[in-house]
Design brief:
With about 230 residues, the chain is α/β, with parallel strands linked by helices. It has 2 domains: about 130 residues, Ribulose 1,5 Bisphosphate Carboxylase/Oxygenase (2-Layer Sandwich); about 80 residues, Rossmann fold (3-Layer(aba) Sandwich), CATH 3.40.50. About 35% of the residues lie in helices and about 20% in strands. The protein contains 9 helices and 10 strands. The protein has a 5-stranded mixed sheet with strand order 1-10-9-2-8. Strand 9 and strand 10 form a beta hairpin. The longest helix is centred in the C-terminal third of the chain and has 17 residues. The radius of gyration is 20 Å and the shape is globular.
C-alpha cells in the first residue's frame, strides 16, 4: 500500500499507542502539519456521563485566553437601538424583521446568532431551521441576553460554547496551529478547567475517560490526562 508523503511523515513521527503530555502533543502536531492552510487544534474528551439523562448533560461556555483564531460571523436579532449597539460592537449583521424573513427563506450564513430576550418569541418559531444547524440562541450559552453588545464582544474575543454529544464526547476547536505552543496550552487548560467545573453531581465513576488532541488534517494523539488534570485543578 502506498502512502502520501504527509501520511509517511505521520508514521515516522507519531506513536499511535503512546500517551503524550500536553506539551509534546502540541509540539508534535505542529511538526507534522504538512498542509498549506492554517489548521485548527481540536480537542475530543470522552466523559463518563449519560447525556440521555438531563442531570448528566454537560454544556457550557468558555472564553479562551487567546481566542480561536477564527473570524466569527455574528448576527444579532434585536430591535433598535440595540441593533446599532451590536453593529458598533463588531457584529456583521443586526436587526429584526429583515433578518427573521431572511432566515425563513433559508439564509443561515453566520457562525453565531445572538438575540435579545424580547426577540425570542418570533425567533423561536424558526427552530426547525436554526436548531439542526446549532444556531438557536440559548440563555445557557449567553446568546440570549439584554446586553447584546457585550455578548458580541465576548464571541469576537474567543468565547465558545460546547455540549456533550449523545455518545458522551465533547468536541471543541481551541485555536490555530499558527499560535505559539504556550498560547495553545493555555487555551486547552482553560477549556479543561471549565469541563471539570461542569461535572454533574449525578455522574458516577471516572468523569474524564479519555482526552485526544488533533489538528484539522492531522493524527489524533491521546493525552496523558492524570498529570494534566492534577495540574489544572
Amino acid at each position: 500500500m502506498k502512502f502520501s508523503k504527509r501520511v509517511k511523515n505521520y508514521k515516522e513521527k507519531v506513536k499511535v499507542s503512546k500517551e503524550y503530555s500536553l506539551t509534546d502533543a502540541i509540539k508534535t502536531l505542529k511538526e507534522v502539519s504538512g498542509v498549506k492552510f492554517n489548521e485548527s487544534l481540536d480537542c475530543a474528551i470522552r466523559l463518563g456521563v449519560d447525556p440521555k439523562h438531563a442531570d448528566q448533560m454537560v454544556r457550557g461556555t468558555v472564553s479562551l485566553p487567546h481566542g480561536t483564531g477564527k473570524e466569527v460571523r455574528v448576527l444579532v436579532i434585536t430591535k433598535e437601538p440595540k441593533a446599532q449597539e451590536a453593529l458598533d460592537a463588531g457584529a456583521e449583521y443586526a436587526g429584526f424583521e429583515v433578518y427573521l424573513e431572511k432566515i425563513k427563506e433559508g439564509w443561515t450564513d453566520v457562525d453565531v446568532i445572538i438575540a435579545s430576550p424580547d426577540s425570542m418569541i418570533e425567533l423561536g418559531k424558526l427552530g426547525r431551521i436554526l436548531g439542526p444547524r446549532g444556531l438557536m440562541p440559548n440563555p445557557k450559552t449567553g446568546t440570549v441576553t439584554p446586553d447584546v453588545a457585550k455578548a458580541v464582544k465576548e464571541v469576537k474575543a474567543g468565547k465558545i460554547d460546547f455540549r456533550v454529544d449523545k455518545t458522551g464526547i465533547v468536541h471543541a476547536s481551541l485555536g490555530k496551529l499558527s499560535f505559539d505552543e504556550n498560547q495553545l496550552e493555555e487555551n486547552v487548560k482553560e477549556f479543561l478547567k471549565t469541563i471539570v467545573k461542569l461535572k454533574p453531581s449525578a455522574a458516577k465513576g471516572t468523569y474524564v475517560k479519555s482526552l485526544y488532541l488533533t489538528s484539522t488534517m492531522g493524527p489524533g494523539l491521546q493525552i496523558s490526562k492524570d498529570d494534566l488534570f492534577a495540574e489544572i485543578k
